[in-house]
Amino acid sequence: MSALHTLLHRAIAQSGGWIGFDRFMAMALYAPGMGYYSGGLPKLGTTPQGGSDFVTAPELSPWFGRTLARSVDEALTVSGTDEVWEFGAGTGALAHQLLSTLGSRVRRYTMVDLSGDLQARQRVTLQPFGEQVQWVSELPERFAGVVVGNEVLDAMPVQLLWRGQGVWHERGVVTAANGGFAWQDRTTELRPPLEIEGTHDYLTETHAQAEAFVRTLAERMTAGAAFLIDYGFPE
Questions:
Q1: Sheet-wide strand order for 221-229
Q2: CA angle, 11 then 155 then 86, to 5°
Q3: Is the dihedral of CA 30, 36, 41, 45 positive or negative?
Q4: Phi, psi torsion values for 134, nearest 5 degrees
Q5: What is the pTM for the complete model shown?
Q6: What are 134-146's pLDDT values in tens digits?
Q7: Of 113, 110, 106, nearest to 143 (Cα)?
Q8: How high is the pLDDT of residue 32?
Q9: Buried-exposed string 16-32: b where 16+ CB fall within 10 A, e elsewhere
Q10: Residue 45 pLDDT class (50, 70, 90 cuts)
Q11: pLDDT tens-digit series, residues 156-215
């Protein structure tokens, strides 16, 4: 953690004392060997005693994956494809459930995950499926198949926009006097994609990286479908 703090403070100093929250979030989550998802912490599981900070639906019950498998099977049939691509696969629990249900219906199951320690857990979980499963670090220029992403969009960095007394600001992070971190807002020309009714103060986020991710899927997918599952309020 101290190494990550040092890295963040250095980035803030090199950027004139302020970085946008999206950059702070990206580094805090994905800085190689130090970030939350890349630093070897257990993270996922069913209990805090096992080192888990949160739990996802596939960890709670196999019925999540078995139910999703019905839609994945239909999408494979309609699109005439036989591959599944999963992004941000966690422990591999969802992949195990899908493969156990779909069997040979899936010729190849490809995991796209940047976390080395999570990849190691996935390889153990998915060992029974052998060469049916493969890992890659990025999406190819062209691909066909069904894409699955459970709680992956909300792990992508976001920009924070704050309207205070009618003026829009981008919320960023600075080094605090006590050596920690603090919020600092800067006026901006950025706006939310939808107009916010009323004149009250308002804090929201914009998700340019998630939008770019979806556009990339659309541009590179020659045939298939995408199931991107997340939870939250519409606004």
A1: 133-136, 108-112, 83-87, 143-150, 221-229
A2: 125
A3: negative
A4: -140, 160
A5: 0.85
A6: 999 888 999 999 9
A7: 110
A8: 86
A9: eebbbbbbbbbbbbbbe
A10: low
A11: 999 999 999 999 999 999 999 999 999 999 999 999 988 999 999 999 999 999 999 999
Structure tokens at 157: 């960095």
> What is the rounded distance in angstroms from the CA atom of residue 214 to the CA atom of residue 92?
22
The set of long-range contacts for 23-26, using a CB threshold of 8 Å and a minimum separation of 24, is: 23/157, 24/172, 24/173, 24/181, 25/157, 25/158, 26/157
